[in-house]
Amino acid sequence: MKRLKRKNQPPKNKGGRPKGSTGASKYTPKFIEKERVALEKWAKDKKNFWIGEFAVERGYYRQKMSEFAEESEVFSETLKTVKQIQENRLVMLTLAGKTNPAMSIFALKNVAGWRDKKEMEVEASEDLKKILEKVREILPK
Q1: For residue 87, which of 67, 65, 107, 103 has the smallest C-alpha distance?
Q2: Ranges under pLDDT 70 in the chain
Q3: What is the pLDDT of residue 141?
């Protein structure tokens, strides 16, 4: 069976990329290091507190920084530090009354792993109570 060629499609290399494409990413180790340095510099400015804004300013989406962190241990450590700075700034802005507390809590839950504390009351079943009584009888006093 003969495969039909689609019209207006650029010719492809064996790997499926358009001919003339090297397949090389612009996100080279050198590029990632450049972004790491820029992120450190950006984080030092106290008016900056939202990491997603950095990514948008640099022309990519926030998830791309996680991909950089997978490629570079140094970028990963920098990103962790900047996330801590982000968390601290959000808390301090909220405590100073400069941001909406509900929005800050929402942001911290989404980007810093904050969770509501859930208290659970556990009642022991009758069987468990009987077992504990027997254990207490066996243990030396």
Answers
A1: 107
A2: 1-25, 119-124, 141
A3: 66
The C-alpha angle with vertex 16 and arms to 10 and 18, in degrees rounded to 5, equals: 35
- What CA–CA distances, in Å, run from 14 to 9, 24, 55, 69, 77? 15, 15, 34, 31, 38
Exposed, middle or buried, 33 (CB in 10 Å: 0-12/13-18/19+)? middle
- Residue 39: partners with Cβ closer than 8 Å, 6 or more residues away: 54, 65, 75, 78, 79, 82
User: What's the CA gap between 55 and 64, in Å, rounded?
Assistant: 8
H helices of 4-113, where?
29-44, 51-58, 63-71, 73-95, 101-111
Cα(95)–Cα(109) distance, integer angstroms: 16
